[in-house]
């Protein structure tokens, strides 16, 4: 590792148009799983000016049969779920309002050809819902074992959202982005060299010579958030700070730019600090290894770092559609490990069954837990008062014993 370098990660808020789409898609996943833990969902969402469109393949006895017949009230419940997400985020604007937006539902029954490969049978375990490669990562640079640049980017926007919802910062609107650049010395973050926030705001709060006081209020508020989130001493006189650098940002969210499910996969994972297999998470039930295998690799990597076996860890798994066992497992400790990587590659499948069913059972994934994950990252944080199953470090003792 280089003795000194700079690294940057970005985050986007719950009101970013792509994140609105992700949250709607995951709310639909939760709706189906709440009625049938074995439901199958692949839901994509498009958001644009006063319009939400969902499409994809679904299966769940309580909602839709194989002929595409919807249960009584199911369509109304899906639409209500989507509108509630938009309402909870806080969109009541002329160009995107939870109550007046146009809603289209193009969900249909899951392909029988996919089902035959994924479902368990008398002579085979449940197969992976698709082929692909998945990565998990952990680093000891923050208490939650996440890259610091991404963790701080998320926390900045989460605090701004909390202040918006509480009324503390009533001039904020839902759409915003953040970016954090840190200087690292010997692998440890020591200083913020650049901080960026662009946030949608109420009319009048913009960088304009005819109303500088309002812009100053916005800038001072954001700088206060920076100081609250970053460790003491990280912000210096040399830190470049940019708040709404283009000026006015009143038209935002899906009215300002169309949103799609799955376009913020680096924000969702590790901020660019780790490779990414390319598959999105939101809108997919946990039989899809794009989601469940990414969660188990995070879980394994986090436990390896928590056990003191490495300072950084990246894990890759690969799968083929319809095949239960992973095709490969790769562990990379980035030169920071105290144990042989090949040994870990042999040990991990003995500690956790890495089939789709084994992963879902170990992490408790067949539950309606996904909407909270669809904003501010899937990793390194709590939801609903408890860690997601993939954030637990309950494998530490078993790992230590296995490598002893």
Concise synopsis of the structure shown:
This protein is α+β, with helices and mostly antiparallel strands.
Can you walk me through this structure?
The protein is α+β, with helices and mostly antiparallel strands. It has eleven helices and 15 strands. A four-stranded mixed β-sheet has the order 1-8-9-10, with helices on one face. β14 and β15 (386-387) form a beta hairpin. α8 (289-306) packs across α10. The model has no long low-confidence stretch (mean pLDDT 93).
Strand order of the largest sheet: 1-8-9-10
Reading the helices and strands in chain order gives EHEEHEEEHEHEEHEHEHHEEHHEEH
Rg, rounded, reads 22 Å
Strand content: 15-25%
Largest sheet: 4 strands, mixed
End-to-end C-alpha gap: 27 Å
Low-confidence segments, given as residue ranges, are none
Q: What is the averaged pLDDT score?
A: 93
* Protein structure class: alpha+beta
The outline comes out as flat
Number of strands: 15
Helix content: 25-40%
Tally of helical segments: 11
Descriptors:
flat; 11 helices; 15 strands; four-stranded mixed sheet; 33% helix; 404 residues; alpha+beta
């Amino acid at each position: 590792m280089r003795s000194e370098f700079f690294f940057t990660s970005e985050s986007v808020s719950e009101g970013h148009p792509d994140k609105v789409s992700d949250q709607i898609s995951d709310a639909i996943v939760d709706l189906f799983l709440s009625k049938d833990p074995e439901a199958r969902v692949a839901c994509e969402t498009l958001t644009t000016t006063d319009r939400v469109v969902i499409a994809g393949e679904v299966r769940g006895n309580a909602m839709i049969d194989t002929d595409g017949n919807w249960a009584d009230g199911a369509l109304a419940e899906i639409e209500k779920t989507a509108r509630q997400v938009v309402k909870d985020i806080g969109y009541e604007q002329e160009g995107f309002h939870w109550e007046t937006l146009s809603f289209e539902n193009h969900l249909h029954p899951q392909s029988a050809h996919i089902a035959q490969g994924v479902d368990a049978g008398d002579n085979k375990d449940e197969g992976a819902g698709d082929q692909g490669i998945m990565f998990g990562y952990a680093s000891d640079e923050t208490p939650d074992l996440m890259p610091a640049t991404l963790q701080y980017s998320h926390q900045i926007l989460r605090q701004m959202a909390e202040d918006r919802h509480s009324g503390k910062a009533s001039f904020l609107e839902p759409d915003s982005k953040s970016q954090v650049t840190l200087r690292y010395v010997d692998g440890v973050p020591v200083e913020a060299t650049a901080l960026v926030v662009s946030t949608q705001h109420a009319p009048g709060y913009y960088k304009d010579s005819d109303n500088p006081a309002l812009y100053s209020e916005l800038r001072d508020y954001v700088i206060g958030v920076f100081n609250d989130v970053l460790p003491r001493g990280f912000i210096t006189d040399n830190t470049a700070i940019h708040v709404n650098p283009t000026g006015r940002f009143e038209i935002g969210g899906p009215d300002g730019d169309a949103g799609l499910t799955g376009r913020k996969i680096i924000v969702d994972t590790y901020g660019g600090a780790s490779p990414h297999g390319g598959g999105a998470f939101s809108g997919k039930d946990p039989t899809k290894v794009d989601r469940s295998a990414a969660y188990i690799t995070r879980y394994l990597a986090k436990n390896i770092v928590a056990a003191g076996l490495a300072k950084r860890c990246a894990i890759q798994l690969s799968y083929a559609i319809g095949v239960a066992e992973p095709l490969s497992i790769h562990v990379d400790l980035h030169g920071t490990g105290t144990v042989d990587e090949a040994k870990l590659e042999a040990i991990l499948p003995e500690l956790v069954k890495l089939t789709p069913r084994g992963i879902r059972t170990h992490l408790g994934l067949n539950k309606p837990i996904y909407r909270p994950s669809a904003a501010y990252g899937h990793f390194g944080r709590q939801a609903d008062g408890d860690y997601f199953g993939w954030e637990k470090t309950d494998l530490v003792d078993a790992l230590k014993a296995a490598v002893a």
